[in-house]
Automatic annotation (TrEMBL):
It is found in: Cell membrane. This is Elongation factor 4. It comes from Liquorilactobacillus aquaticus DSM 21051. Residues 4-187 form the Tr-type G domain. One of its GO terms (cellular component) is plasma membrane. Required for accurate and efficient protein synthesis under certain stress conditions. May act as a fidelity factor of the translation reaction, by catalyzing a one-codon backward translocation of tRNAs on improperly translocated ribosomes. Back-translocation proceeds from a post-translocation (POST) complex to a pre-translocation (PRE) complex, thus giving elongation factor G a second chance to translocate the tRNAs correctly. Binds to ribosomes in a GTP-dependent manner.
Length: 597
């Protein structure tokens, strides 16, 4: 199809504002799917996506629409991931579009994620079409929603607002018309050197990596020799095609087309989101800006719950093939045995991987406390160690100083939640840099340690704002921090899997809370077990885990006091052991660490 009749767009919305429902209606009304293929959340085919109501993997689908002007148009809809952990992937998916539909729920109005998504679309210089959804609901306040959208930016003052019900299909025809009327056709030169953006990829055990691309210049033909500019990988395009939403082979992909290329590359780490695909013999002069490799921000240990190491290894290897941002390496623990040190984009990413292991491979794992990567400067040889496992933290006598990662956090929240959000940020050692008013919403900019938001900061933010706040983060730099390693000793034996790194000022309170929690979460033995939190060789908190035993003093038998005491004494003889292998750790034990943060 001629590029003048191609439109590439995405739908951006706050969670539960109807993005997936509108996508379903568009595919139905353009007859992309037939009545047998219809189902809710058609593009969210993973169990974890449907369970959480968010998009994890970016998806694309080609639709053909015959407009009221008699022209046939090619609509390439690019679905985007829906969580702060995948902000980079969202930005690259939007970079493949010329326009977006800004979808707002008429019953809830403009919310935090609406503002964050709008900001991303504007940064990518996209045409933004405001669409008000759920106008048929009893609680819909269309007039107020229109005013809230207009306050976002002056560009909305002169625009027509589309009012629809994605559930019933009311007004969706006007959306289809607006797409080709308002969103510009892609610009580019078919005769120029090939320049295509890789905005996602999947792995196939037979075909290798399948790259999802958008062509900006030139064209890709069957058996073309191509090259990835960032990774320097070269390959022959054995198969090219489009998604409708199933894979359909084509002879060529031209300017404006969105499709896929089967690369045959067996290493999924060789192809990354944001890379530039070009012709090997006649490469383009410049790559797309803003490319960066997926870098894990949060690390945690995965250990098999039922000692099924081989099955866990196979499952993790398969998951990593289809998720280049998920990284792993072998790890062993004296307490837990063989396992893996895994890197994630954030806590939701960690949760998704755990759930996929359970749903797709029927594997339950023990997850250690998540932490970030520290730069540890060694005293004598001036060497810098990158440490993402607290068990590998050097002895305090060897450390000169430690640096921790800082992030820039942009929090968008309703006015009524500002005070609570600011208190949360201050508790998380946030340094307020800017505050901006956006009508009923306030945008706060903080610099804060990544370790303080790695676990449940986003969940707490959602809780105190009743789900209306949004968080956008970007890596800032590494800064000197006064952090220490906290070791946990149970029955005088060091348990390496329970070690964690904490700011020194938080140690007294956190260590006391920890040993109290461990008292009730560590499985009991027939003998009492002292549990200590040790910092720099000194015990800073201690509690004794009581024994699990038959209490002779309360068993109902009538005996003299001296005989009862004698029996209790005999029950404790030779019961104490210091062998660490005798300590069995459960997920409840690790949850005690998580609750501290």
């Amino acid at each position: 199809m001629e590029s003048v009749n191609i439109r590439n767009f995405a739908i951006i919305a706050h969670i539960d504002h109807g993005k997936s429902t509108l996508a379903d209606r568009i595919m139905e009304m353009t007859e992309t799917v037939n009545s047998r293929e219809k189902k809710a959340q058609l593009l969210d085919d993973m169990e974890v996506e449907q369970a959480h109501g968010i998009t994890v993997k970016s998806r694309t689908v080609r639709n053909y629409y015959k407009g009221d002007d008699g022209q046939e148009y090619e609509y390439n809809f690019i679905d985007t991931p829906g969580h702060v952990d995948f902000a980079y992937e969202v930005s690259k998916s939007l970079a493949a579009c010329e326009g977006v539909l800004l979808l707002v729920d008429a019953t809830q109005g403009v919310q935090a994620q609406t503002v964050a998504n709008f900001r991303l679309a504007k940064e990518n210089n996209l045409v933004i079409i405001p669409v008000i959804n759920k106008i048929d609901s009893k609680g819909a306040d269309i007039k107020k929603t229109v005013q809230q959208i207009k306050k976002l930016d002056p560009i909305f003052e002169e625009q027509d607002f589309l009012k629809i019900s994605a559930k019933t299909g009311q007004g969706v025809h006007l959306v289809l018309e607006a797409i080709h009327q308002r969103i510009p056709a892609p610009s580019g030169d078919d005769s120029a050197s090939l320049k295509a953006l890789v905005f996602d990829s999947v792995y196939d055990s037979f075909k290798g990596v399948i790259a999802y691309i958008r062509v900006f210049d030139g064209q890709i033909k069957f058996n073309s020799k191509l090259k990835l500019m960032a990774s320097k990988e070269s390959f022959k395009a054995s198969t090219i095609g489009v998604l409708t939403p199933n894979m359909k082979t084509v002879e060529s992909l031209c300017v404006g087309d969105v499709g896929y290329v089967i690369t045959g590359i067996k290493d999924p780490k060789a192809i990354n989101v944001g890379d530039t695909l070009t012709d090997e013999k006649k490469p383009t002069k410049s790559a797309f800006p803003g490319y960066r490799k997926a870098k894990p921000m949060v690390f945690a240990g995965f250990y098999p719950k039922n000692n099924d190491y081989a099955a866990l290894k196979a499952a993790i290897e398969r998951l990593s093939l289809n998720d280049s941002s998920f990284q792993y390496g072998l790890e062993s623990s004296d307490a837990l045995g063989m396992g893996f040190r895994c890197g994630f984009l954030g806590m939701l990413h960690l949760q998704i991987i755990r759930e996929r292991l359970k749903d797709e491979y029927d594997l339950e794992v023990l997850t250690t406390s998540p932490n970030v990567t520290y730069h540890v400067h060694i005293r004598n040889n001036q060497k810098i160690m990158e440490v993402n496992n607290p068990a590998k933290f050097p002895d305090f006598s060897e450390i000169n100083y430690v640096e921790e990662p800082f992030i820039r956090a942009i929090i968008t929240t309703p006015v009524e939640s500002v005070n609570q959000v600011m208190k949360l940020a201050e508790r998380s050692k946030g340094d307020l840099k800017n505050l901006d008013n956006k009508g009923d919403l306030v945008v706060l900019e903080y610099n804060m340690p990544l370790s303080e938001i790695a676990y449940d900061f986003f969940s707490q933010l959602k809780s105190i704002s009743h789900g209306y706040a949004d968080l956008d983060t970007s890596f800032l730099n590494y800064q000197v921090a006064d952090v220490v390693k906290v070791e946990v000793h149970i029955n005088y034996a060091k348990v390496d899997a329970l070690a964690f790194v904490l700011h020194r000022q938080d140690v007294p309170k956190a260590s006391q809370n920890l040993v109290k929690k461990l008292k009730y979460s560590v499985p009991r033995k027939l003998y009492p077990m002292p549990t200590q939190a040790v910092v720099e060789g000194k015990a800073v908190a201690r509690v004794d885990i009581p024994p699990l035993r038959k209490n002779a003093a309360v068993n109902g038998e009538k005996r003299s006091i001296s005989k009862k005491k004698d029996l209790l004494r005999r029950q404790n003889i030779n019961k104490r052991q210091s062998a660490q292998s005798d300590i069995k750790l459960t997920q409840e034990v690790f949850n005690s660490l998580l609750e501290l943060k």
